[in-house]
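User: Could you go from structure to sequence for me? I need the amino acid at each position, not a summary. Structure tokens:
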């Protein structure tokens, strides 16, 4: 009888230890799964941010290049016409100067035909260059390709916002040196592209007057900035 009781106690004790062991194993597995899922989610988010940084960098660089295209279009062939025609407006740099003359210090320039067609057309459509809600956004024109065009900030397809600034000498952000050839001061062009990630609570601004855009020290939005110097390198 004593031996039988001892066997029963031992069996119950083993059963108890087995149950505790299973619970401990489940806790360890749960912790490992949570940590693994957390790491995977962080990886997915980091990959999304990196992808958008690459796209935003390209769009910001394009913004600076668009201004250079305006400057260079004065003596270049306008490929929008058939046959191509030579623009004769005295040099595209005058168009950039015209922007500054009109105190249009921020713009949302795109590669539309009228932007480069002729000086008169450029002046006629100068209002379209202004950085405003109706054209400050960048929406993807092809869902399968990273091709963007300007759009309204209220557009459901809005992915980025691009602001192009023309900085005069005397501004603290002015970085251009005197042109060593022509002896003229350049114009600093700054292109900034803003965006939000899909999992972030606050949406993109619906107005260019949003402090997240107007305040350069505000970091509530992701942003990439590219700057360049523009000179009138053409001979008189």
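Assistant: Here is the amino acid at each position, in order:
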């Amino acid at each position: 009888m004593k031996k039988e009781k001892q066997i029963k106690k031992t069996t119950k004790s083993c059963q108890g230890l087995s149950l505790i062991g299973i619970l401990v194993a489940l806790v360890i597995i749960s912790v490992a799964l949570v940590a693994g899922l957390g790491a995977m989610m962080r990886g997915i988010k980091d990959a999304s941010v990196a992808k958008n940084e690459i796209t935003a960098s390209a769009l910001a660089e394009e913004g600076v290049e668009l201004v250079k295209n305006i400057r260079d279009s004065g003596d270049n062939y306008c490929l929008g016409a058939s046959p191509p025609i030579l623009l004769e407006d005295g040099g595209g740099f005058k168009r950039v100067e015209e922007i500054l003359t009109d105190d249009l210090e921020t713009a949302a320039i795109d590669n539309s035909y009228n932007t480069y067609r002729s000086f008169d057309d450029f002046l006629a459509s100068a209002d379209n260059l202004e950085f405003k809600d109706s054209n400050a956004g960048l929406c993807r024109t092809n869902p399968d390709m990273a091709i963007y065009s300007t759009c309204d900030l209220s557009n459901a397809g809005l992915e980025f916002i691009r602001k192009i600034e023309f900085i005069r000498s005397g501004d603290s952000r002015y970085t251009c040196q005197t042109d060593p050839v022509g002896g003229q001061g350049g114009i600093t062009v700054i292109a900034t592209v803003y965006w939000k990630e899909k999992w972030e609570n606050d949406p993109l601004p619906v107005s260019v007057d949003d402090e997240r855009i107007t305040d350069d020290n505000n970091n509530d939005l992701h942003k990439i900035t590219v700057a360049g110097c523009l000179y009138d390198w053409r001979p008189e």
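One structural detail worth keeping in mind: Residues 2-230 form one domain.
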